[in-house]
Amino acid sequence: MSRTITWQDDLDTGIDVIDQQHRRIVAMINQPAEGAPEAAGEVIADLLDYTQSHFAFEEELMAVAGYPLTDAHRRIHDMFARRVLRYQERHRAGEDVVDELRDLLSTWLFNHIRNDDRAYTEQVRRHLERFARRQEGAGWMASTLARLFGPRV
Predict the structure, then answer these.
(1) Confidence (pLDDT) at 140
(2) Is residue 19 predicted with pLDDT exceeding 50?
(3) Domain range for 30
(4) Is the pLDDT of residue 152 over 60?
(5) Domain assignment of residue 6, yes or no
(6) Is residue 92 part of a domain?
(7) Is residue 134 a part of any domain in this protein?
(8) What are the DSSP calls for 38-75, one per residue?
(9) Across 28-41, average pLDDT
(10) CA nearest to 99, candidates 36, 33, 50, 6
(11) pLDDT tens digits, residue range 103-138?
């Protein structure tokens, strides 16, 4: 039986939209993927798709904030996505990878948030505060959120 992972307060970045996305990823990791192999495959595919959308959003946010390590952060995301794709391939080949993948995701995600994401949060928060003062609501954030995640996150 696989274990459920629990959100911990020290994972909050202070950037609400990022924290909501991270919490959604945790909820998706905790989704039961038991039963038919197709169900597990669907959970893996959905999780991979959402995570890649989150990565794209986070990278764009870092870039517009002028975070100097955006490219390095992007490479970390790319390496992780390739690793998860290998799990997806193993699953499609008939291997039961659900528990192993869940362990990898929870360990990697929590470490990534606490270290790599924590490094950009102050600069991005300052940028978002300046942007909010200039834009009053709509603009880049709303259109990017709608484009990547639909009308409401």
Answers:
(1) 66
(2) yes
(3) 12-149
(4) no
(5) no
(6) yes
(7) yes
(8) HHHHHHHHHHHHHHHHHHHHHHHHHHHTT-TTHHHHHH
(9) 73
(10) 33
(11) 888 899 999 999 999 999 999 999 988 877 766 555
**Residue 147 in tokens:** 């484009």
Q: What CATH number is attached to the domain comprising 141?
A: 1.20.120.50
Enter the tokens of residue 15. 């950037």
8-state DSSP, 117:
I
What is the pLDDT at residue 43? 83
Rounded CA separation 47/55 (Å) = 12
Chain-wide mean pLDDT for the chain?
86
Q: How far is CA 139 from CA 92, 134, 144, in A?
A: 41, 10, 9
Nearest to 112 by CA among 34, 5, 24, 13: 13
- DSSP letter, residue 30: T
Is 5 part of a structural domain of the chain?
no
Coil vs helix vs strand at 139: coil
Tens digit of each residue's pLDDT (9 = 90 or more) over 138-150: 566 676 777 777 7
* Distance, CA of 34 to CA of 46 (rounded, Å): 15
Whose tokens are 């905790």? That residue is: 30
Q: Looking at the 3D structure of the chain, how many domains does it have? A: 1
Q: What is the pTM of this model?
A: 0.80
